[in-house]
Structure formats: structure tokens, C-alpha cells
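Handout, page 2. Input:
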Amino acid sequence: MTETAPLTTVPHQTAPPERPAVRPTVLARRAARVLAVNRIGGATVPARSLYPHQWSWDSAFIAIGLRHRFPLRAQQELETLLAAQWEDGRVPHIVFNPVVPRGAYFPSPDFWRSSDAGRPAGAPRERETSGIVQPPVHALAAWLVHRADPELSRRRAFLARAYPRLAAWHAYLADRRDLGGHGLATCVHPWEPGMDNSPCWDAPLTRVPPAPRGSFRRADLDHGAPADRPTDLDYGRYVRLAADYRDSGYHDGSAFAFAVEDPGFNALLTASEHALADIARELGLGHRRAAHEERARRLTGAMVRRLWSPESGQFLPRDLVAGALVAERSAAGLLPLAVPGLPAAVAAALVRTAAGPHFALGAGIGMVPSYDLRGRAFDRHRYWRGPAWFNVNWVLEHGLRRHGYAGRADALRAAMLTHADTTGFAEYLDPVTGEARGALDFGWTAALTLDLLATRGEPWTGGQPPEVSSSASEPTAAQA
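Output:
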């Protein structure tokens, strides 16, 4: 693997470069056009060439953007995904489009064999899916979609139909995926936390023998530069883990070589649990609302107990096999900032870390990288090993605003809109230069652009943001 050397200095004290002014109406029209081009049936694919199927957390973010212009399509986006839910409650990370040739993407339906191998777990027989999951943003998306057009939502009984499926999804994560027994959901494959190729997974993956060379063909390299994608060694390990899980019948009681409590995954689960409480209230299910609020409190407490690192000033993943925190800084460790009820001291420390030399929030291109700028494996271009991603920064923008850092949130919002505009809605960016990387006309980049243009200061769930002066609450110490 050819890596870019870690940065020894970060220009977080310098003023960001001048950026062209964003024309909101034009930008919104272009973003809507991207979502129209990526629409296939009842779903929106992330990018037609590289990702021609429906992805789980992509569709949640896409629905959040669609709600502002096409609320019916936003509801249908989530309904299409949830229609492929397994009987055990899991929402698969890919729902395959049957008209796409099998060789266009790997791992293909022939690899996952969900309707056969997944039968013990209740995989649907009429739809082919993957067998793993992605971060549970769906209840949050459903709540925000409802709020965009409550009349349409109530007329279609959108929440009434979605709620049982969303509740079953969360119950699956709380029960079958609490492999550590401490109240947090466990990821059993690096693709599940969403940050697939993060250096956080390097050490856990050393336990996994790769699938034999020649046993699979990487279709991703047909559309992306090899220097941007995971290495063949890492990809072989991903394939091995997925094949072993498939061959177990997707059984969650197995002994997993990779088992990690990820802070980003659990932060989004907690935010969505708060959203489930709001949905239950809307449906008149007071007892269920209280249960969801209590589970959200327990999740927040477990994250702080299990994953918070005072020395790092952020949350870290916990490797259940090794029995220790993973000593790598990724942006996933900042995402709990968006959780309602996070202790104020923890939130302040997260902002100090985000603004310090490891992530340089507000400096350079203005967006947070996916991995530590000073980390041993920092790579400006390689997938999730440094590039800045729009969905991650969208979550952080909300977290900053929720905890009263309005000035920083406004600056991050402006940077995201500028880069979406100038890069053609790129999948991700070089965190130093802002150069577009990955696919262009990317679904969640366009969708979250629409959301940023339409909202500012609107709380997702769990009450209003605190009334704090943006200047008085800004942290001043750069955490080393």
C-alpha cells in the first residue's frame, strides 16, 4: 500500500482560502437533478456506475434530502428498503436490483445467497440482499421525512407502517448484536460501521486470513482508481469474513474473528432511538415512547463507559476479541457529538479534538477528514483512510449546533455547500486540497446538500439546541 506521509503540521491557525459564492437556487436544482438521475424504480442508488444497487444508510441520507422537494419519494425510498428486511429484524446493507448484471458489482447476489443461506434468519425469498448491516440511521430519517409533510405522512400511514419494522430493527441490534453484553451493538464486518477501510480495522483484520487470490473479482476497480480503493489484501479479508458469516447461516451467535463496538454506529443508533421515541409519541404509543427514551439513555451511558477515551479526547472503537480500545483516531469517534443528552464536558472535549491538529475543523478545506491527519496510516486519497466525507460532516454540523457551537456549525455548513458545488457532488474529498475523489454525482452528497440548504438550526429530535453564545462557547485550546 502506498500511503501519503502523515502531516506533521496542520494549518489550523491560518485563514481558509477564498471560496466562490454558492448560488443556493442553482445548487439545489443541480442536487435534485443528481437524485433524479440516480433514481431506479422506488430507490435511489449512490452512483450508477460504481454502486448500482440500493445501499442501506445511503438511502436513509438520501431520504433526508429528498423530503424537502419530493416528500412522497422520500417515504418510498425508506419503504423500498424496509420491504427487504429480514424476519429477525436486520435491515441488509444492500438490496440488489435484479436488472443489474451479476458481474457489475461484487460481492454479487451469487456470493451472498441470502434467499438460501439466510433462510434460518428469515431473509426474504423474493428479494436478494446482502447479509450484513450498516449504521441504523433509518428511524431518524423516517422521523425527519414525516416532519417535512405531516399531512401526507398521516394520510399514507407512513409512520404507522414503518414503526414496527424500525422497532424490530433496533430490537435486533439491542438483542442479537449485543455481543459484548454491555448494551452496545457490535459490528461483525468492517463494512458494517460504514467507514469500510478505516485504519481502525487494521489490527482486528490481522486475525483474518484473506480469501484465496482468484476466488473473487473486484468490480470496484473497473470504476475507481486502485490508489483510492482498499488494497487486495484487505479486500480478501473482507471477502473471507463475509463468506464465513454466510456459511454460518448468518448466525449471530458464532465466534467472530472481527467483532467491534463502533462509536459512530452506536451514536447513530442512539440518535435513531430518540427518533423512535418521537415516532411513538406521534402514534400515541406512550409506553413505547418511554421505552425508547430509556434505551437511548442506556446507549449513551454505555458509549461513555465503554468507548470514551479521556486521553484521546474522543470515542474509540472497542475490539471485543482483543478486549481493548483500538488506539486509532477516526471521525467515527466524533459522531457521538450529535447524540442528545451527551454530557457537556464530553461534548466540549470532542469539539476541542475536532478543532485541534488531528482533524483541523475550520481550517484548510473546512471539513473534517475521516482519519487522523497525524495518524500512522493517514492517506489523503484512499477510501476512509483520510478523505473528507459529506455524510460524516453533516452529522458533525448537527452535533456542533446541538451543543451550542453555532459559529463552527455555520462555517462547516458553508464549507460543505461550497465543496458540493465545486466538485460536482463528489463522493469524498482530498482533506488537504479539496480535490474531488471517488464517484461524482454521488447520492448522499446531493441529498445532504438539499438538506443543508433547507435547514439551519432545526433539531433532529430530543429537544431544542441549547441557547449558548457561539463566541462564548468556542473552545480555544488545540488538543494535541
